[in-house]
Structure formats: C-alpha cells, structure tokens
Write a structure and sequence with these properties.
The protein is α+β, with helices and mostly antiparallel strands and about 425 residues long. The chain folds into 3 domains: about 150 residues, 2-Layer Sandwich (Beta-Lactamase), CATH 3.30.450; about 80 residues; about 150 residues, Histidine kinase-like ATPase, C-terminal domain (Heat Shock Protein 90). It has 8 helices and 12 strands. Strands 6, 7, 8, 9, 10, 11 and 12 form a 7-stranded mixed β-sheet that branches. Strands 2-1-5-4-3 form a 5-stranded antiparallel β-sheet, covered by helices on one side. Helix 7 packs antiparallel against helix 8. About 20% of the residues are buried.
Length: about 425
C-alpha cells in the first residue's frame, strides 16, 4: 500500500492541474472570442445607428439637409462619411471639398440594387485602422444611394488588446499554478521520504539494540566455552602437537567470535569526532594491515597534503575493509590501485581491483547487512562502511569498472583543506 500512495497522490495532483489548466484556457478562449465579437458588434451597431439616423433625416426633409446630416455624422468616432449616387458621384461628404468626386468602386450600381449592407476593416490614408460600413439609403422616391461611414476603431481595438493581454495574464497564472503544484509534489515526496527514513532508522535502532544485547550474551558464553576447551586441549594434546582433536572447535569458536565482534561494531550507536585527517598515512596504515602479505602489486596516487574531515579510527576501518575486499577478490595476484584527489570541494578516494567484479543480481543489495558473496563473510563490512561514511557527511559507492574486469569502491568525504587549498 505504501509504494502505491505517492503514485496515487501524484496522479490526483496531475489531474487537478490538467483540469484546471484546461478550464482556464477554455474560459479565456471563450472570453477572447466574445470580446472580439463584441468589438465588431459595437462598431456595426454604432455605424447602423448613425446610418438609420441619416436615412430618417433624408426622408423627413425630402432631399435632406446637408447641415442636419453633417451634424448627425459629426460624432468623434466618425473618421469621415459620404453619400454617393448609383453612378459613383459623391453627393455629400463630411469634407465638403470631396463633394462631386467620383468613387473608384466598380459594380456600385449592381450592389445598390442588391439591398445588402456590409462592414469591413480598412486602413486610413494616415495609416490608422478603421471600420468601413456601407449602408443603402432609400430616397422618398425609391432611389438607392450609398451611405458610407468610416469609424475610428480605437475603443474596439483597446478591447481586443485587453483580450490579448488576458492570454499573458492567464499564462502567468498557469505558470504559477504549475510551479506551486511541482513544489507541493516535491514537498510531499520529501516529507514521505523523511517519514520512511525516520521509520527505517527507528527500526534499525531497535534491531541494533537487540543485536547488541544478543551479541554480548553470546560473547560471554563463548568466552567460558573457549576457556574450558582450551584447557582441555592443553591437557590432552601430545607434546609438539599443534593440531589437537578440539582444534576445529576452537576455530569455529574463533569464527563465531569474529562474527559477534562485527555485530557489536555494526549495531552500536556511533559518535563521531570529525577533524582534519591526512589521508595518505591512513591509506598506508590500512595497506600495512590488510595487504602486507598479498602477492599482487599496489599502485598509489595520493598527492601530499590531502586532508579530509573525518573520524580517524572509523575512516581507517573503512579503508581497511575496502582494501581487504579488493585483495580477497583478486586472491594471489593482480593490481590494486588506490587514488586520492579533490573533486568539487570533496575528497575522493577510489580503491580499484582487477577481480571478477560485482554480479548484476547482487548490485542492488551490496550495502545490505548480512548480504555477502564470500563463503566466509559476514556481510557487515560494507554495511558498516556505509553507515559511518554517511555519518561523517560523505557518500560511498561500489561499482564495476567500465574497462576490463574488477570493481571500484568510491568514497567521498568533506574536504578539510590541504594541497588543493593554498
């Protein structure tokens, strides 16, 4: 149930974000389209109202009063207006100097007899946008004439501009919405990881307490058994015989003692005295302890003065375990390479062997307690190394070499200055 919970929450959060985004985009699209329609409709309505007023004035006065029509068409929204006959002659213009001119349109007479008015977007000679509405006037005698009203579109264009600006506002809101969703998902995932980690630590702490208690009792019992066996061995062993009848029992007891000691080391609550530690002496000390009798060769690459911030004794134990594992994987020959350097303000230690490497099925459980590929291993060495390295603020990783056989144990620790910090 626990692994499925984050997936379900993420799915619900994604569904909410997608549905919210879709709804906002749809509503914005509808509002933008409505704003565009309203802008055009307002221009048409204004032009139609002015046209109807001009037609009523013409009908009321016969031929119509130019002054009365000019007054009707003097609204600030009107760029200019004209009345033309069927032959294209301009009978009236808001600019009196244009009266008597001929319109360049073709087929004007046919259109006048069609009876249909229409509007369209045009550009004035000044370069400003405008809206042209063509209306058919009917004189009292039934003669059709063209009434053309050209309106300024500043107000309508402002509506359209606001509608376009709305898209940028919506885009910003959606970006904030998705950012908030991503942050919420990250916070939830982090909180869940912290809860799992706390639960894991509590469980490990309880297991550690139980293990330590059992290991102490086993070690005490083994001490008594070992003493009696050794005493009996000395009484029954013939002079010069170093392989008495109970020697296998003593070796088994020693094996159990080693396991119990590893359990006690792994299960105890660690405290760290992190201080600047010179890495080179630690590496050489671990080599002296765990590779002095090995038949292979060792290659060291350690610049002088490299210092890490670590607990010296625990770091020595981690290095000794890594070198011992590398040597045992190569048995009696091969090359053990140990390199130390500084990477991104951290000290990188790599222990590289030429053994068979790590089997693919075992890679996921490398640092799990009691998991080992050795016939006589306890499976606690890597688990302890990971525990203390992370406790010192570092990281540890075991991987196969990219070229040739073998494995690489990589340890990264906080730098304490040195050669790289002049």
């Amino acid at each position: 149930m626990r692994p499925a919970l984050p997936i379900a929450v993420r799915a619900v959060l994604l569904l909410v974000l997608l549905s919210s985004t879709g709804s906002v985009l749809y509503v914005t699209y509808r509002n933008t389209r409505n704003a565009r329609s309203l802008a055009v409709l307002s221009l048409e309505s204004t032009a139609l109202a002015l046209s109807s007023s001009a037609e009523n004035a013409l009908r009321a006065s016969g031929k119509g009063s130019a002054g009365e029509i000019r007054e009707i068409l003097s609204d600030r929204v009107v760029a200019y207006a004209l009345i033309a006959g069927g032959d294209g002659t301009i009978l009236f213009h808001t600019n009196p100097r244009m009266a008597g001119a001929i319109l360049p349109e073709e087929g004007l007479g046919r259109w006048l007899h069609s009876g249909a008015g229409f509007g369209r977007r045009v550009t004035l000679g000044t370069g400003l946008p405008a809206y042209e509405y063509n209306y058919i006037l009917h004189r009292p005698d039934g003669t059709p004439e063209l009434l053309r009203i050209v309106l300024h579109t500043a107000a309508a264009d402002r509506i359209l501009s606001d509608a376009r600006t709305m898209w940028w506002t919506v885009a910003g809101v959606l970006a904030l919405l998705w950012a908030a969703g991503i942050v919420l998902e990250r916070l939830f995932a982090r909180q869940l990881r912290l809860a799992v980690e706390v639960e894991r630590r509590e469980r490990l702490s309880l297991i550690g307490q139980m293990t330590a208690s059992l290991a102490h009792e086993i070690r005490n019992a083994l001490g008594g058994i070992k003493g009696f066996v050794q005493l009996d061995e000395e009484k029954k062993r013939a002079p010069g015989d170093h392989n008495g009848p109970v020697s296998p029992a003593l070796r088994g007891i020693g094996r159990i003692e080693s396991l119990v000691n590893d359990l006690l080391i792994f299960s105890r609550e660690e405290t760290y005295e992190s201080r600047p530690v010179d890495v080179a002496p630690l590496v050489r000390e671990a080599l002296e302890t765990d590779a002095s009798r090995w038949g292979g060769s060792v290659e060291l690459s350690i610049p002088p003065g490299i210092r890490a911030r670590a607990d010296r004794e625990k770091m020595r134990r981690v290095l000794a375990n890594g070198i011992r594992n590398a040597v045992e994987s190569m048995r009696d020959g091969g090359v053990l390479r140990i390199t130390v350097g500084e990477e991104d303000r951290r000290i990188a230690i790599r222990i590289e062997d030429e053994g068979p490497g790590i089997p693919e099925p075992d890679r996921a459980r490398l640092f799990t307690p009691f998991h080992t590929t050795k016939t006589d291993g306890t499976g606690l060495g890597l688990a302890y190394s990971r525990k203390v390295v992370e406790g010192m603020g570092g990281t540890i990783e075991l991987s196969n070499r990219k070229e040739g056989k073998g494995a690489i144990l990589s340890i990264h620790l906080p730098s304490a200055g040195g050669a790289g910090h002049a």
